[in-house]
Design a protein that fits this description.
92 residues, globular
Length: 92
């Protein structure tokens, strides 16, 4: 089931299942493998990043950048700036 979630065509839905399980190593790997050209709701990215931050800093940073990009498209500039600053503060 975890492999199915990691390969789900809808990136955000697959990631949601892994985060809810919680299967954090698999979620981290999915983010690292499939984050290119993906979108994710900024609020979800921020909440999930909090769960991943300690053990998976590189995936956390990438997830926050995805959320920041979505916030920028939505013209939520304060949220964009906050997520970008938080991502940039993480040392991968």
């Amino acid at each position: 089931m975890l492999a199915y979630a990691a390969e789900h065509p809808d990136f955000e839905k697959g990631l949601a299942l892994l985060m809810a399980w919680p299967a954090l190593p698999e979620a981290s790997q999915m983010i690292m493998d499939r984050a290119e050209q993906r979108q994710i709701a900024p609020e979800r990215a921020e909440a999930w990043a909090a769960k991943l931050r300690r053990r998976f800093p590189a995936a956390t940073q990438r997830l926050l950048h995805l959320g920041a990009a979505a916030a920028r498209k939505q013209r939520a500039l304060k949220l964009y700036e906050r997520l970008t600053q938080e991502a940039d503060a993480i040392a991968p």
